Amino acid sequence: MAFSKREIENLLRLVSRTKDAELNCEECLALVAEFAEQHLAGKSIGSGLQAVEQHLAVCDECREEYEALLVTLGKIDDDSPA
Amino acid sequence: MNRDNDTWVAQLSSAGAEREVALTELRVVLFRNLRKALAGRPHVDNSFLEDAVQDALLRILDRLDQFQGRSRFVTWATSIAIRVALGELRRSRWKDVSLDSVLDDTDYAPTRAVDSSPSPELLVQQEALFHKLHELIETALTEKQRAALLAELRGMPQDEIARHLGSNRNALYKLTHDARKKLKSALQNAGYREDELELTY
Ligand SMILES: [Zn+2]
């Protein structure tokens, strides 16, 4: 089990973004819809949602899911009232 | 038909025909959203999408009481459907891959990935920081933490790593989060300030 230099670099990026208190993936999922809508509406992100932003910075899977969600939001409007 | 959040929840929670109508409409919306979200990915066809929507509907109905109305209902439901669908894609791609093969894989050759033209001074600082982190990985972490972090860095899905470790995703997140915290505080104890850890980006 050996970390390559590239992996050390990627790990350092994660370590630098690490906070003492973080949401886990399940907690992130509960808030990510609200986060995505606020982000797209250009609203400033409240303190509760900053934890979502931080989780997305350290979790590739939730980040991938968030980006997929953003892709859908452009066409959600015709299915649901604002 | 447009529904507000309360109507979605009320109809999906009801027992009558309106529940069936709401379910049918939600199924159509989720199918369309998933198809858009996953467009261009391998193995995503109508049959995959229908299965994913079905699984997602069960999960959505199961946690209907957790919807707090802080986003549109459809956005919330779509976020769950995306987790289900991407989870399934990751699982099918990785299901036959052992943790050992990921950790032992020698294809992960060291590459020079940092800024291609750093100043000599910055380069020396980067090298020292990388060296220190490398040392801490060996000395400050448990074997399990090392394995989980490395498997994650190599793209293995968290659910799969957890399965191989006989754990679950929440416990795995705690394991790797604790490992990152330990590394961060060890680097800070070694004299690196928080902003210096970001120096290379
Ligand atoms: Zn996550």
UniProtKB/TrEMBL annotation, chain A:
Which InterPro entries did the record assign? Anti_sigma_zinc_sf
Question: What's the protein called, per UniProt?
Answer: Zinc-finger domain-containing protein
UniProtKB/TrEMBL annotation, chain B:
Q: What's the protein here called? A: ECF RNA polymerase sigma-E factor
> Which residue numbers delimit the RNA polymerase sigma-70 region domain?
34-94
Q: Where are the transmembrane segments?
A: none
Mind listing the GO biological process terms from this record? DNA-templated transcription initiation
List the keywords (alphabetical).
DNA-binding, Sigma factor, Transcription, Transcription regulation
Q: What range(s) does the RNA polymerase sigma factor 70 region 4 type domain occupy?
A: 140-183
**Signal peptide position in this chain?**
none
**Gene3D superfamilies reported for this sequence:** 1.10.1740.10, Winged helix-like DNA-binding domain superfamily/Winged helix DNA-binding domain
What is the species listed in this Swiss-Prot or TrEMBL entry? Bythopirellula polymerisocia
> What's this protein's family per the entry?
Belongs to the sigma-70 factor family. ECF subfamily.
- The primary gene name is rpoE_8
Question: Which Pfam family is one of this chain's hits?
Answer: Sigma70_r2
Q: Name one GO molecular function term.
A: sigma factor activity
